[in-house]
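A further point concerns the way the authors explain their paired sequence and structure data. Nothing conveys this as quickly as seeing an actual entry. An entry of this sort, consisting of the sequence and the corresponding backbone structure tokens, reads as follows:
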Amino acid sequence: MSKSIKKIGVLTSGGDSPGMNAAIRSVVRTCAFHNIECLGIYRGYQGMIEGDFKEMNARSVNNIINKGGTILKSARSKEFMTPEGRKKAYDNLIKVQVDALVVIGGDGSFTGAEVFNAEYGFPVMGIPGTIDNDIFGTSHTLGYDTALNTVVEVIDKIRDTASSHNRLFLVEVMGRDAGHIALNAG
């Protein structure tokens, strides 16, 4: 028989992307609707290691969907890449009675979640939030469409200047190891 989930932890990890606050809000409000406690974890996996938690409810996510970035902050954690770091994180979650984890992030965040789940059998759900659009199984990650439209808008503006001065500009776009933004902006 499976254990019922009474408390969920939610975190954002890696690079921030547009839509992360909307995802946080959805997690928190869904928890409130189902009478499940929700704990915000600040600064991603590093906050999980340090026990940087805050109870969240429907009021704590008022007026956040139009804000950029992530209200839970984000950080990369070298310590979480070690078994000792993951053990600290696990112990902190157990201490505050978190039953499951929602990870909002990209490829690195999901890799950490997968390793954590494999080591501890801890239930983890991922919400793909990365401008790189490099998460398998989804056509558009949170933030990808906004990043793509921002690039197209900027290229349109710089094209006017290039044309006025009879020049050629090279534009490098974000995307880490994936070329989705470059390909679709073109």
Remarks:
- Strands lie at 7-12, 37-41, 53-56, 100-105, 124-128.
- The CA atoms of residues 86 and 116 lie 7 Å apart.
- The radius of gyration is 19 Å.
